[in-house]
Design the sequence.
């Protein structure tokens, strides 16, 4: 049994029309010892939102490199925030100008994972409920508007742990360009995983990109990002 990580991010129609950059960022990494998926959504009203989102992905990657998988949430959050601030300071960018949400899943080859989320967006799991996830109607794990650069409170983060045990078990991490328009989430994880089966990394990224461009949100300006982790 193996594990696959796939991701894509696209500019929203409003940003395309206005010539604005993608203010979302995604990162996936699959190594021998662990795996990582990050989705960040820069707050559009901040002039360095795109940089803030990219910095969040970099900060999480650096934090998990130096932390034990069993470290407590406070220690991991503190490491993420420290690396994010350092990244901005090196570029002489103020945190208030680069506010971003931050969602990530960090896991081990045996299927154990941990989740942390600050700000808007959505984490879905199959089977529902995924062990350890906070559940709302429809299997939703989500939050309300805040982000790196706005909040310094641990209480604004939500963290859970779980395990992907069987073939077809999976997680979706998405920015609010996708999540805020979802009415029902039943079967969404399975549908996305099914669309990726048999595809290599490049083909899967292209397929996800097409799905995001075709997302049925007429007139929606938000960028759209999705990371997928699933057992094969």
Sequence:
């Amino acid at each position: 049994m193996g594990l696959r990580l796939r991701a894509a991010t696209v500019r929203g129609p409003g940003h395309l029309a206005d010539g604005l950059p993608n203010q979302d960022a995604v990162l996936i990494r699959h190594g021998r010892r662990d795996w990582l998926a990050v989705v960040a959504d820069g707050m559009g009203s901040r002039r360095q939102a795109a940089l803030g989102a990219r910095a969040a992905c970099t900060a999480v990657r650096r934090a998990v490199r130096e932390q034990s998988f069993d470290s407590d949430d406070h220690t991991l959050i503190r490491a993420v925030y420290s690396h994010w601030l350092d990244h901005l300071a090196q570029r002489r960018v103020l945190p208030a100008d680069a506010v971003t949400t931050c969602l990530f899943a960090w896991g081990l080859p045996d299927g154990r994972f941990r989740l942390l989320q600050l700000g808007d967006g959505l984490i879905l799991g199959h089977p529902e409920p995924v062990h350890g996830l906070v559940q709302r109607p429809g299997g939703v794990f989500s939050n309300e508007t805040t982000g790196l650069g706005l909040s310094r409170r641990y209480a604004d983060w939500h963290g859970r742990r779980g395990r992907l045990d069987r073939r077809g078990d999976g997680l979706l991490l998405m920015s609010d360009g996708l999540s805020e328009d979802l009415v029902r989430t039943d079967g969404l994880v399975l549908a996305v995983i099914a669309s990726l089966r048999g595809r290599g990394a490049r083909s899967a990224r292209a397929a996800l990109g097409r799905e995001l461009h075709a997302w049925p949100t007429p007139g929606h300006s938000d960028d759209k990002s999705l990371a997928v982790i699933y057992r094969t």
User: Anything to note?
Assistant: The beta strands are 3-10, 24-30, 35-41, 102-107, 112-118, 122-126, 141-142, 157-163, 170-174, 224-231. Residues 88 and 94 are 7 Å apart (CA to CA).
